[in-house]
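Q: Please design a sequence for this.
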């Protein structure tokens, strides 16, 4: 009977795998699966690293040149990195699995190289201020009895991290002794038990379960779980926290805080880990019974986030955290207050059309722009008087409106409100506004804390609603109460506001994430080239989009722009590549997405893929459950997700962006175009490994200026 193993992954492992070719990645995945089922299999050639005094460092074979470097303790395998043979053996000399009996902490520590500063070459584990020192469970005399001299003990006592221990100028034998001493108490060292290795294995197993996440270690997975994970789509691997993101997730804040960063920097991953940290922090407070809220404006994302949350190490099941999109939350708050708003989109549309017919004769703005102005600027800011609207700075709106035009817009808004009142219906912004006022009237907070993801797409009133639910009637910001997460460059809805306009102060409590972990350098460069360097207003911070790009952590394939004969040709190309990827390259269908700019295009694409017997699921129906189907949705619906391969059709000059409509002013069209380009930028940055853009006839003018960033091919 084969001996199975439990496998944990360091936060370095999957990024190292993604740097390999598609064929090599497939071979590594196969080897990982085999390791969990039978690490003694001949094909793996699992063996200890020659010259390793610890006996814990092993390599196994993925192919002739690719090796997996791992650390072994009993039936526990901690996979560190995958790469070329010589690189893995060079790395093996610098790492070790260190378990500290005194702190209960387990880490994979890496010593610095001579050529580069330590902080640039390896992970550095943060240590909480209340953590005991590395050797606090060993006395001075105990260390002397173990064979350490006075100077060696002094050097050891000065170490606060495992990396510092590895960097001490001691020989390998002394370092191995120190690591072994950490794993034991002095009593265990003096009287070693017959089952010491078995006991150590259980201690490390428990340490990985309880505290491994703090050291960047995944949970331990058995063979069946490994089979499920490695055969499933990318959702399963979106939850690993990189070391430089950990501080933002675990930091204590005295008031509202913010995490910002450009595409691919892992803002949502940080937010999810923040939720875990807060739930665990608050559970120690017996006086607190309020849950943590995790919310966003996009209704399809909360169930996805909830499933990802429950994949995290240390995530608490039950009702300690609530995932809910903003409109649903607002409706519930109204109902709990005895206010039962009627939601009827058809009546809302009809009353707007009637109000526009009565009052819009003198308005020179288009119907869509007018509705957005009322929805996102007037109602989204909670303005109740014309004077307030006349004075407001219309953040995020480029079309200038003079006083006379604003008065006309206000008249339309008033007529629309009257029409809604007559039919007994309400629009969603009205419900959010009423919910905010109900929340402000509550004597006690509803939530202990709230995390808002994709915050740039909320309205000002939406943010005020969440803040009121956290602070209660007193209105005083609570420590660790509100975390705002987002990126203004990825705004997919019109309008905007600044945090200061919302009354939220985050100065001194803002974290900027600077490394792109998702996209290859080639994909993010192409996305930035398409989006251009227009100014971005990011909740009050203004900068050129190009200046905000985070450094990509890996290289990859250049995006491909395919010039096609027509829409049917675009679909044919997509289908051919889907079949190639899911057969020859071994990519799951669940790791593929097709995204277009309009719902009509999405409907047509879904029908064509179905006719070709390609299983699909619309992003509007996707709840985060891994499913072996190609995801299909609009550019704004793909927001917050990521895929190995993304196809973006209908990017010909005739399809994208929308042309100037009859009665639409050039300024309105410029606003519309800017929002469409921002949505395209979001869709492009959902791709991790491969990005395919397809255009019929001449490509869109937004692609022409960035053509040097693509490999251009004819279908």
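A: Design:
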């Amino acid at each position: 009977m084969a001996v199975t193993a439990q496998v944990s992954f360091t936060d370095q492992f999957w990024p190292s795998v993604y740097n390999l070719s598609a064929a090599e990645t497939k071979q590594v995945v196969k080897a990982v699966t085999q390791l969990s089922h039978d690490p003694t299999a001949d094909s793996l050639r699992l063996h200890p690293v020659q010259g390793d005094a610890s006996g814990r460092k092993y390599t196994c074979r993925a192919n002739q040149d690719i090796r997996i470097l791992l650390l072994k303790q009993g039936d526990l395998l901690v996979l560190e990195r995958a790469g070329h043979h010589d690189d893995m053996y060079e790395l093996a000399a610098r790492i070790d699995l260190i378990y500290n009996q005194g702190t209960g902490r387990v880490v994979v520590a890496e010593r610095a190289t001579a050529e580069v500063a330590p902080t640039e070459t390896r992970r550095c584990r943060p240590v909480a201020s209340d953590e005991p020192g590395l050797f606090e469970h060993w006395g001075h005399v105990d260390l002397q009895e173990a064979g350490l001299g006075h100077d060696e003990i002094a050097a050891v006592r000065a170490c606060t991290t495992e990396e510092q221990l590895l960097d001490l100028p001691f020989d390998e034998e002394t370092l191995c002794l120190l690591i072994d001493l950490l794993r034991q108490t002095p009593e265990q060292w003096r009287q070693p038990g017959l089952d010491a290795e078995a006991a150590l294995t259980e201690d490390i197993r428990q340490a990985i379960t309880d505290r491994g996440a703090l050291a960047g270690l995944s949970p331990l997975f058995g063979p069946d779980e490994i089979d499920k994970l490695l055969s499933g789509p990318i959702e399963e691997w979106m939850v690993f926290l990189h070391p430089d993101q950990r501080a933002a997730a675990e930091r204590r804040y005295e008031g509202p805080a913010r995490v910002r960063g450009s595409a691919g920097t892992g803002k949502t991953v940080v937010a999810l880990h923040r939720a875990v940290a807060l739930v665990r922090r608050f559970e120690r407070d017996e006086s607190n019974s309020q849950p943590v809220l995790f919310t966003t404006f996009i209704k399809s994302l909360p169930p996805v986030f909830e499933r990802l949350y429950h994949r995290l190490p240390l995530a608490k099941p039950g009702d300690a955290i609530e995932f809910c999109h903003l409109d649903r939350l607002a409706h519930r708050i109204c109902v709990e207050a005895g206010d039962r708003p009627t939601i009827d989109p058809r009546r809302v549309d009809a009353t707007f059309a009637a109000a526009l017919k009565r009052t819009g004769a003198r308005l020179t703005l288009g119907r869509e722009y007018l509705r957005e102005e009322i929805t996102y600027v007037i109602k989204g800011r909670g303005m109740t008087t014309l004077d307030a609207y006349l004075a407001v700075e219309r953040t995020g709106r480029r079309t200038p409106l003079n006083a006379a035009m604003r008065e006309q817009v206000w008249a339309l808004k008033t007529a629309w409100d009257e029409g809604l009142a007559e039919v007994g219906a309400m629009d969603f912004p009205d419900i959010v506004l009423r919910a905010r006022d109900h929340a402000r009237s509550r004597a006690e907070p509803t939530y202990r804390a709230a995390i808002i993801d994709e915050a740039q797409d909320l309205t000002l009133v939406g943010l005020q609603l969440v803040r009121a639910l956290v602070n209660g009637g007193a209105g005083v910001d609570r420590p660790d109460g509100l975390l705002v997460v987002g990126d203004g460059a990825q705004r997919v809805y019109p309008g905007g506001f600044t945090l200061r306009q919302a009354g939220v102060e985050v100065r001194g409590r803002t974290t900027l994430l600077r490394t792109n972990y998702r996209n290859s350098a080639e994909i993010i460069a192409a996305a930035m080239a398409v989006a251009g360097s227009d100014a971005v207003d990011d909740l009050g911070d203004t900068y050129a989009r190009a200046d905000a790009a985070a450094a990509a952590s890996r290289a990859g394939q250049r995006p491909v722009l395919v010039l096609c004969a027509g829409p049917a040709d675009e679909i044919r190309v997509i289908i051919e590549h889907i079949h190639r990827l899911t057969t020859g390259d071994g990519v799951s269908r669940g790791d593929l997405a097709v995204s277009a700019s309009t719902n009509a295009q999405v409907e047509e694409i879904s029908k064509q893929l179905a006719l070709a017997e390609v299983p699909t699921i619309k992003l509007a129906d996707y709840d985060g459950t891994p499913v072996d189907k190609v995801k299909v949705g609009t550019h704004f619906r793909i927001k917050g997700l990521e895929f190995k391969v993304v196809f973006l059709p209908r990017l010909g000059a005739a399809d994208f962006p929308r042309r100037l409509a009859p009665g639409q002013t050039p300024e309105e069209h410029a606003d519309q175009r800017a929002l469409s380009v921002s949505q395209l930028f979001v869709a492009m940055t959902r791709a991790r490994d491969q990005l395919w853009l397809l255009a019929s006839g001449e490509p869109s003018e937004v692609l022409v200026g960035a053509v040097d960033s693509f490999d251009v091919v004819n279908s």
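Q: Thanks. Anything notable?
A: Residues 98 and 107 are 5 Å apart (CA to CA). The mean pLDDT is 87.
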